[in-house]
Amino acid sequence: MTIALTDRTEMAENGEPSFDDMFELLYEIVPEGFKGEIVEGAIMMSPQRRTHSAIIKNVLLQLAHHSGWESAIEMDVRLDLPGEGNMFCPDLYKVADGASPDERGNWRYQDVEFILEVISRGTAMNDYGTKKAAYAAGEIPVYLIANPYTGRCHLHTLPKDGEYWGNLTVAFGQPVDLTDTVLGMTLQTDRFPRD
After folding, report:
1. Do 74 and 93 meet the contact criterion of CB atoms below 8 Å apart?
2. CB atoms closer than 10 angstroms to residue 16
């Protein structure tokens, strides 16, 4: 979709665009088949792949089976996080039972229990760097990175003072033990495909 220059000019004349204005613009410019999000104020786009989708779907089904089908589990849905211009759309996240969206209809990062990011070649440094730091600053209890290129999952837990103090790496095919986390489950990775 084409964005008219006047739309951008009106936004600039009204001062700094709000997060909502930036996301509206993002929805207009991201082509079909791509995921778009804002990381430290920069628009990031990455193509969606079947491998990526298969891992997300697998985790979604396991979470829903364990937590209940009525649980709030989101895929590629906006989540504003600490730090300047951090408006992410995590591949998948689970919200605590009983939490309610804010007045704009968005989930609060303080209510998120689990985030999954599946690595894409062009955005891997965000998942391992900027996003990991923002998730730790937001004290997201469980952050899991699935890397289909290396066939490994990187589990980050115990956020404190902007860092994750619990770190574990497991190969695809090995279970990810989340029994001591807020999720209280074991995640199976034997069906995670590799690129």
Report:
1. yes
2. 8
Residue 34 placed within a domain: no
User: For the domain that residue 104 is a member of, what is the CATH number?
Assistant: 3.90.1570.10
CA nearest to 93, candidates 164, 182, 13:
182
Residue 9 to residue 195: CA distance in whole angstroms: 42
Q: How many domains does the chain have?
A: 1
**Over the stretch 79-118, which tens digit does the pLDDT of each residue have?**
999 887 788 889 999 999 999 999 989 999 999 999 999 9
Q: How far apart are CA 155 and CA 131, in angstroms?
A: 14
Residue 29 in domain: no
- Decide: 86 and 134 in contact? Cβ < 8 Å: yes
Q: What's the whole-model pTM score?
A: 0.78
d(CA 87, CA 99): 20
Question: Looking at residue 119, what DSSP letter applies?
Answer: -
Residue 143 belongs to some domain of the structure: yes
- Give the separation between CA 182 and CA 189, rounded to whole angstroms: 19
25 within some domain: no
Domain containing 72 equals 48-187
CA distance 143 to 163: 11
Q: Report the first-to-last Cα separation within the chain, whole angstroms.
A: 31
CB atoms < 10 A from the CB of 65, how many?
10
Q: Report residue 192 CA to chain centroid gap.
A: 18
